[in-house]
Every structure is written in structure tokens, then in C-alpha cells.
Specification:
The protein is an alpha+beta fold and 67 residues long. Helix content is 40%, strand content 15%. It has helices spanning 3-13, 19-34, and strands at 39-41, 45-47, 57-58, 65-66. The chain is elongated.
């Protein structure tokens, strides 16, 4: 889900919030997530940042390994 899709989805579910207000809320969520916090929007979902290890992939055309 892109940031724009998230803003649209929250705007559709919210009552009385303008798109500008929802945009500011999503920006605040982005800042909080960057600082390592957990964000919860009741009735919508929870957001956290997960660290994953790098994995090897293969280029289907050449078969070479991509890092």
C-alpha cells in the first residue's frame, strides 16, 4: 500500500477529517515509525517496522545472483 492509498483509506473510514488532516496524521506516523515506535489506529490496523536479513535473489533472464 502506498502512502496515497493509505491516506485515501483512512479518509474513507474517518468521520470529519479532511484529507489534509489525514495527510498530516500519516506524516506523523511516518516520523514515529522512523524513530522505532509502534503506531496503532483503532479499527484500522497496527504498524511497526521490521528488520529483515538480506536475501539472495536470481535474475530470471541470466540466472545470476542479485544481492
Amino acid at each position: 500500500m502506498t502512502k496515497r492509498q493509505l491516506i485515501d483509506a483512512i479518509h474513507e473510514k474517518s468521520t470529519g477529517l479532511t484529507k489534509l488532516q489525514v495527510t498530516k496524521v500519516v506524516e506523523a506516523m511516518t516520523t514515529a515509525l522512523a524513530q522505532g515506535s509502534k503506531v496503532e489506529i483503532r479499527g484500522f490496523g497496527n504498524f511497526t517496522v521490521r528488520q529483515r536479513e538480506a536475501r539472495k535473489a536470481r535474475n530470471p533472464r541470466t540466472g545470476g545472483i542479485i544481492f
